[in-house]
Specification:
Blueprint: E1 7-9, E2 17-23, H1 45-57, E3 64-70, H2 79-133, H3 138-153, H4 156-179, E4 184-188
Parallel strand pairs: 2-3, 3-4
Antiparallel strand pairs: 1-4
C-alpha cells in the first residue's frame, strides 16, 4: 500500500502479521444467504477460510491485523468502522461457540470416563469370577483376558478426548480470540465512480453523507 493510497479504519501496528484480502465490493466478504443485519452477518465461508488459514500460519504470539484492498473509491465515513466491528464481532462469536463446543466435549469425556471405569471394573471382577469358577482351566483364562481387553477398549473414547481431542479445540478458540481483537483497515482503489459504494454492501444507510 503506497502513501497516496486512500485508506480508512484502524491503525495497523508495525511488526504485525498482516492478513491481506482483495475484493471488488465489501459484500463479497459476507455470506449473501444470511439475512441478518450487517453487524450480525456471517463471513462468506471462503473468506473466513482464507483469513483463518492465514492466521494459523502466523506465530502463536504474533499480533494480527487485516488489510482489505477494496477496488472502489471510499464510501461513507463510518464504512471502515462498520466493517471492522462486523469482522471482529463475527470472530468473537466464533470464539464463544468454540468454547461451548469444548465444554460439551469435556462433559462427554467425563461421562465416558465414568462409564468406562465402571465397565472396566465390572469386566475385571466378572473375569476373575469366571476364571475361579472354571478352576483355572485354559478356557477360564481366555474368558478373563477377553473381558479385560473389552474393559480397556471401553476406555478408548475418554482417553481420546482427554489426550487428543480437547487441545485443538482450545487452540481454535484462542485463534478466534486473536482474530476478534485484530485491527481492520481498508485500502481503497480509484477505478470506480465516487458513488460506487451505493451498489456495495449497505454498511451504512445509503442516505448517509458521502465524503467528497
Amino acid at each position: 500500500m503506497t502513501n497516496d493510497t486512500p485508506a480508512a479504519g484502524d491503525a495497523i501496528p508495525p511488526q504485525c502479521e498482516l492478513i491481506e484480502v482483495r475484493v471488488g465490493e465489501l459484500k463479497q466478504l459476507f455470506n449473501a444467504m444470511d439475512p441478518s443485519p450487517f453487524r450480525e452477518k456471517d463471513l462468506d465461508p471462503r473468506a473466513e477460510e482464507f483469513i483463518v488459514d492465514w492466521a494459523r500460519e502466523a506465530a502463536p504470539d504474533a499480533t494480527l491485523g487485516m488489510l482489505v484492498h477494496l477496488d472502489r473509491a471510499p464510501g461513507p465515513d463510518r464504512e471502515a468502522a462498520a466493517l471492522a466491528d462486523a469482522v471482529r464481532d463475527y470472530f468473537r462469536l466464533r470464539a464463544v461457540v468454540t468454547r461451548r463446543r469444548l465444554r460439551r466435549l469435556l462433559r462427554v469425556g467425563r461421562t465416558s470416563l465414568l462409564i468406562g471405569l465402571v465397565f472396566l471394573a465390572a469386566s475385571i471382577a466378572i473375569g476373575d469370577l469366571v476364571a475361579a469358577a472354571l478352576g483355572g482351566r485354559r478356557i477360564g483364562e481366555v474368558l478373563r483376558e477377553s473381558l479385560l481387553i473389552g474393559g480397556w477398549v471401553a476406555m478408548w473414547r475418554p482417553l481420546e478426548v482427554f489426550l487428543y481431542d480437547w487441545w485443538p479445540v482450545r487452540a481454535e478458540a484462542r485463534l478466534y480470540d486473536r482474530l476478534g481483537a485484530m485491527p481492520v483497515r481498508i485500502a481503497y482503489g480509484s477505478r470506480s465512480e465516487p458513488d460506487a459504494w451505493r451498489n456495495d454492501w449497505p454498511a451504512v444507510s445509503p442516505s448517509a453523507h458521502t465524503p467528497a
